[in-house]
Design a protein that fits this description.
10 strands, 64% helix, four-stranded antiparallel sheet, elongated, 564 residues, six-stranded mixed sheet, Rossmann fold
Length: 564
């Protein structure tokens, strides 16, 4: 059990500490209600039944019934309060995880297995939820109630209570050695389950490709090995949990049997009355129920503890320094000054000096792998230059609020990012309050309005995962419409015409030229129509700028646009 992880977890309870104390208080009150019941049972047998007092018998019975009902009401109130509390805690943790994910640098997502990360976040927060509920609703109340019942047992018969502790305690300590294997098997099970979940996610993502290359048998064998491992570790974890639970339950049952034997013997010798024995056995039964609840909740606690450790590793992970300025700047111009950038040990860009002015179209072209997309990643602040500086509106990138800056950039990535949902939801992503007139206008500017009208239900058409129900050109135009809708002072377009035919390319190029009268536009492209509309062209070769000039100068030097 990592102490630092529990400190992190428990800090979420600080703002809910009064609810926590109230939940525990209700548990204490519930245990206190049991004391009069035991005394009433004692009085019932030793007086009401012994003296055949029917009226007293009825009143005692009604008193016991009322106390039972009161105890159940307190238990229900405590359960409701603890559920509200635990759900709020898990909600806060999940929100913090989402916030944390957006704070990690792009380099983290370049190397992390996202399918596995998804499994860890979803499964481990769910297990933590189960553990939290068990902790507040079962473990803490059962502990409090057991501690509350213990003095009652000593009050009823201190000698028998000491004897029970003397006999039961060593057996509990011996059975406690089962905890470590349970924890180990639970850890193995969680890792195997994560591998299984990751494998299924991979199967779904690669379905078309696997079928296309005839690799179904290979993939089935691969996933079968993962499933077999999950079967084995799942069986071991379940069996170890069952063994622990049964062992602990047996210890509790032994205590109950010993009470009957020893108490019956003491009653036979005249050292206890039958009423004393039944009252004592009643309280032992209550404690036995609480102990069984504790034993039953132990596997949930173990699973939750392992999940807490995984989530803690994720949330407490050290991250490289990122841009953390505070100036609210909307991008109108951007300048690269002697910028070099590398992935690992390989330079993608070297000594880049480039200017994107306040208005106009700047085109960056060059062969594949020349470093063109790295320019956009640097502008977006996904990466920090290895050397040199970036400036926006004359301010250093380190001075500006990078998230605010990104909101002023209209992005069309090389591979349009679409998601399961409607056309409307994809165009208005991040702008849920966009007006219909604005969406229609952006769609017309992107030349997407006609094909959208021809869809089954227009803007309400569901386009499938990654927009699979649309053609490449249609996906690209939706991405362009999304960028236009944001109406930002700067547009960044990475190969925006790849899947579009000649007429549409020409019309979109003309639209971009019109927009450039009051917007800054950076376009990465090989397309001749787009290049001819540029105000300035940069040509990249192996991460270096080897040409800067007008379209006329570009065509004089290179003759034609390089093929992709």
């Amino acid at each position: 059990m990592k102490q630092s992880c529990w400190k992190y977890y428990l800090r979420f309870y600080k703002q809910h500490r009064y609810s926590l104390f109230l939940a525990i208080a209700l548990s204490v009150a519930q245990s206190l209600v049991m004391l009069p019941i035991a005394l009433l049972i004692d009085y019932l047998f030793n007086h009401a039944i012994k003296h055949s007092n029917f009226h007293l018998l009825v009143w005692i019975g009604l008193g016991i019934l009322m106390l039972y009902l009161l105890g159940n009401i307190l238990a229900l109130l405590g359960r409701n309060l603890s559920l509200n509390l635990t759900k709020l805690i898990i909600k806060s943790i999940r929100i913090e995880i989402v916030q944390r994910l957006y704070s990690y640098p792009q380099k983290y997502y370049d190397i992390v297995d996202r399918s596995k990360l998804h499994t860890v976040i979803v499964q481990d927060t769910e297990r933590l939820d189960v553990m939290s509920n068990a902790l507040i609703s079962i473990i803490l109340p059962a502990l409090v109630m057991s501690l509350g019942l213990l003095p009652i047992l000593f009050y009823l018969n201190w000698a028998l209570s000491f004897f029970l502790i003397f006999i039961i305690a060593p057996i509990y300590l011996i059975s406690g050695t089962l905890k470590k294997p349970v924890q180990r098997f639970v850890y193995d099970f969680q890792r195997a389950f994560e591998d299984f979940s990751e494998g299924i996610s991979s199967v779904l993502q690669k379905m078309e490709f696997t079928r296309a290359v005839g690799a179904e048998s290979y993939e089935i064998r691969k996933q079968s090995r993962s499933i077999e491992r999950l079967r084995q570790v799942s069986k071991r974890a379940a069996f170890s949990q069952a063994l622990y639970t049964i062992t602990q339950a047996s210890v509790v049952s032994i205590g109950g049997i010993l009470v009957l034997i020893i108490g019956g013997w003491a009653t036979g010798l005249g050292q206890m009355t039958i009423g004393d024995l039944i009252a004592y056995y009643f309280v032992v039964g209550l404690m036995r129920t609480q102990l069984r609840m504790l034993v039953g909740a132990f596997p949930q606690f173990v699973e939750g503890n392992e999940s807490l450790a995984s989530l803690c590793d994720l949330l407490c992970m050290a991250t490289p320094p990122q841009y953390n300025g505070e100036k609210k700047v909307r991008a109108e111009s951007i300048r690269f000054e002697n910028v070099s950038f590398q992935y690992g040990d390989t330079f993608a860009l070297q000594n880049i000096n480039m200017n994107i002015p306040r208005r106009g179209i700047v085109v960056v072209t060059g062969s594949n792998g020349a470093g063109k997309s790295s320019l956009i990643n640097l502008i977006l602040g996904f990466y920090v230059p290895y050397r040199g500086e970036l400036f926006v509106n004359g301010y250093l990138y380190s001075e500006v609020d990078i998230r605010f800056l990104r909101r002023s950039l209209g992005l069309v990535p090389q591979n349009p990012v679409l998601f399961q949902g409607t056309v409307w939801e994809n165009i208005t992503y991040g702008m849920p309050d966009a007006q219909k007139e604005e969406v229609i206008k952006a769609s017309k500017m992107a030349l997407a309005d006609q094909f959208i009208e021809n869809l089954s239900v227009g803007f309400d058409t569901v386009i499938g995962e990654r927009g699979i129900r649309l053609s490449g050109g249609e996906r690209q135009r939706i991405a362009i419409a999304r960028a236009f809708l944001r109406d930002t002072p700067m547009l960044l377009l990475d190969e925006p015409m790849t899947y579009l035919d000649g007429e549409i390319v020409t019309r979109l190029s003309n639209t971009l030229k019109e927009l450039s009268s009051n917007k800054s536009i950076l376009i990465i492209t090989h397309n001749e129509d787009v290049i001819s509309q540029a105000d300035l062209i940069y040509h990249l070769d192996r991460g270096k700028i080897d040409f800067v000039g007008t379209p006329e100068e570009y065509f004089q030097r290179f003759g034609r646009v390089e093929g992709e």
